[in-house]
Amino acid sequence: MALDRFARHIKGIRNEEILKAALKEFGQRGSTMRIEDVTASVGIGKGTLYRHFDSRIELLRAVLAYGVRELQLRALAARDAADATADHGLTAVIAELAAMNAERDPASPASLCRLRVCEGWPEPLDA
After folding, report:
1. Is residue 65 packed enough to be buried (19+ CB in 10 Å), middle (13-18) or exposed (0-12)?
2. Nearest to 77 by CA among 44, 99, 110, 51
3. Is the pLDDT of residue 127 over 50?
4. How far apart are CA 109 and CA 19, in angstroms?
5. Which of these, 53, 83, 91, 121, is most buried using a 10 Å CB contact count?
6. Torsion angle in degrees (nearest 10) through CA of 43, 46, 52, 56
């Protein structure tokens, strides 16, 4: 039992490493991102990546969901750091999102929209 929990924990850590690397690679290369670039960044082989994600599309869907979570966390942190008023909180969130776009952060709204558009996903992505 403890071994199963440990294995799941390690798999979760590896998943996050893969998602961070894939989000960064997509942020830098857009739709020309290659699986080889992601695996090299994490230090794993393609087989290991495909044990975590069945296909490139599944990986990209997971990257989009991961990026949205990162975006939410940063927006909430900006809101919480602002004054208690709604106006200040909203202003802080907008400023943070604008800064992410300006920095070309892979988790920025612009990057996440580009990921969706480049992959031609017209339907909602339920990740």
Report:
1. middle
2. 99
3. no
4. 17
5. 53
6. 120
89 contact partners, CB below 8 Å, separation of at least 6: 79, 80, 82, 83
Cα–Cα dist 46/10, whole Å? 18
- What is the structure's pLDDT at 126? 47
Decide if pLDDT at 78 tops 70: yes
What DSSP element (H or E) covers 118? Answer: helix 109-118
- The class level of CATH for 2-118 reads mainly alpha
d(CA 56, CA 51): 12
The type of residue at 123 is E
